[in-house]
Specification:
By secondary structure, the chain is α/β, with parallel strands linked by helices. It has 12 helices and 21 strands. The strands form 3 sheets. Strands 4, 14, 15, 16, 17, 18, 19, 20 and 21 form a 9-stranded mixed beta sheet that branches. An 8-stranded parallel β-barrel has the order 5-6-7-8-9-11-12-13, surrounded by 6 helices. Strands 1-2-3 form a 3-stranded antiparallel beta sheet. It binds ligand LLP.
């Protein structure tokens, strides 16, 4: 639970990045996403250094869907990672932050013509083509932008099922993502891509799932992808320059989670790629990986203020916080579990078992069931750990609850990277006037 720079200080308060979390709450309010900047940077370095050590011709690409802000893009660039984006909005955020377009990898299973055109205009490094419709859209765009070489990779569905939650499995044949290998679509896509003037096919991509703890799926992915590279080499004399193995490296949410060490994940992947290349007699391609959760997940902590406490003797004690599924949808969506402590009573003995409820109007808005904590009172601050990935990025305004602020903490200092939404922000896009009437479409 005490990841990165988390510790308990002499006041018995939780401290992150040298900042007393109770002081952070006074300054920025709750709910508050606190990101441990040094921990994020350390994770970036762990991935880059371990990968480079084993295979110089490699790149770590941060999956922005886990947590993306302009400051995060800047950090990622400073640490030398590439960036995976999946929408026009993520692409826009990256470009606005000054992130180099060449280091951007554009993913997604339904990129629109406008998004693809935007990517070509900015000159993104790679477009990871997901399906035949996208190939057709890009063919048109290539015609329009003659003279621009559009570098693409093809996303493949290697038919490997990683052991993780059903909703986040993306590698099996029955998936909305990528060209199936088993049904021949992947080969058809290669043939198609090679025939289009203006395209430069550089290699292939796969993503076999998320929050993976096992070695086998990575080993299998390496073998299947290299085998495919061999097949296309034989069939089309195409030399695969690079293979992107996606993300999926697991992290710890609770004591039950047993992720491998970063070094082990990478060693398994790289050694398997090398072995398969030897077996199939092809040269080792550039190896790319796309960790998202593993870069930011454990570096994030959410702080909440405790409000209503409802005790049902003999049944359960509900302790409600001032956030919930609007800032953390993962328990409701995936049954995700978390560790937490009372930030202002960090070292106090655990005295009661309670369940942490959110403030949304849904019985399912529960953040944690049955957690042992010190005696709790309204006004206490609850810190929920491992909330750096897929929390801010999946936050919503359900029940018109403003999204929390995000602060980066480092070396005893905090800086706000996203300000808290105001009520005004919530109604900003609404068109509302006492005289509003319907207008026929023709006059727009
Ligand atoms: N690359 C691709 C193509 C992906 O689809 C994903 C995640 C990643 C990389 C990064 O995966 P990671 O290293 O973060 O596991 N909302 C879910 C996770 C969905 C992941 C979707 N794709 C959650 O909260 O667990």
């Amino acid at each position: 639970m005490f990841y990165g720079t988390c510790r308990i200080n002499e006041l018995n308060h939780l401290e992150i990045g040298g900042c007393d979390t109770i002081e952070l709450v006074k300054e920025f309010g709750t709910p508050l996403y606190v990101m441990d900047e040094n921990h994020i940077r350390e994770n970036c370095r762990l991935y880059i250094n371990n990968l480079r050590k084993l295979h110089e011709n490699s790149e770590v690409i941060y999956a922005g869907k886990a947590f993306l802000t302009m400051e995060m893009c800047k950090l990622i660039e400073e640490e030398g990672l590439g960036l995976d984006v999946v929408s026009g909005g993520e692409l826009y955020t990256a470009i606005k932050s000054g992130f180099p377009a060449k280091k951007i990898y554009f993913h997604g299973n339904n990129k629109s013509y406008a998004e693809l055109e935007m990517a070509v205009e900015y000159g993104v490094g790679r477009i990871i083509v997901d399906n035949f419709y996208e190939l057709e859209l890009l063919r048109d765009i290539a015609k329009k932008y003659q003279g621009k070489k559009i570098k693409i990779m093809l996303r493949l569905t290697p038919g490997i099922e990683a052991h993780t939650h059903d909703y986040i499995k993306t590698g099996q044949l029955d998936s909305k993502f990528g060209f199936g290998m088993e049904n021949g679509h992947a080969l058809m896509a290669v043939e198609n891509a090679l025939s289009i003037k203006g395209f430069k096919l550089t290699g292939f991509h796969c993503h076999i799932g998320s929050q993976i703890f096992e070695e086998e799926p990575f080993k299998d992915a390496a073998e299947v992808m290299i085998q495919f590279a061999k097949t296309v080499n034989k069939k089309y004399e195409f030399k695969t320059k690079e293979i992107d193995f996606g993300g999926g490296f697991g992290i710890k949410y609770t004591e039950k989670d047993k992720p491998l060490a970063v070094k082990d994940y990478i060693t398994i992947l790289v050694e398997s790629v090398k072995e398969s290349c030897k077996k199939h007699d092809i040269s080792i391609p550039k190896i790319l990986i796309e960790p998202g959760r593993a870069i930011v997940g454990e570096a994030g902590t959410t702080l909440y203020t405790i409000g209503a406490i409802k005790n049902i003797p003999g049944v359960r004690k509900y302790v409600s916080v001032d956030g919930g599924m609007s800032d953390n949808i993962r328990p409701a969506l995936y049954g995700a579990q978390y560790m937490a402590l009372i930030a202002n009573k960090a070292n106090c003995p655990k005295e009661e078992t309670v369940s942490i409820a959110g403030k949304c109007c849904e019985s399912g808005d529960m953040l944690i069931w049955d957690i042992d904590l010190p005696k709790i009172a309204p006004g206490d601050i609850l810190a929920v750990f491992s909330t750096g990935a897929y929390h801010y990025s999946m936050a919503s305004n359900y029940n018109m609850i403003p999204k929390p602020a995000v602060v980066f903490v480092k070396n005893k200092a905090a800086r706000i990277v996203v300000r808290r939404q105001t009520y005004e922000d919530l109604i900003n896009n609404e068109v509302f006037s006492p005289h509003s009437k319907h207008i026929s479409l023709a006059s727009f």
